[in-house]
Amino acid sequence: MAERKPFLLRVDPQVLEALQGWAADELRSLNGQIEFLLRRALAESGRLGGPRRGRGPAAGPDKGERR
Q1: DSSP letter string over 8-43?
Q2: The pTM of the whole model exceeds 0.85
């Protein structure tokens, strides 16, 4: 498994409580839930190197791409 780097995260108490409940509902640790959500957001935005899902190509002829 790849090395994991710890870091401090400050979060609003209501957000923390909601994340803890969501993690429990999905049988994940809080840390696992946060990482899952971050990975999903990165993948969907095309920032993890994988294909973008659900939004079509990032650029095309109608998006200002030059030929």
Answers
A1: -----HHHHHHHHHHHHHTT--HHHHHHHHHHHHHH
A2: no
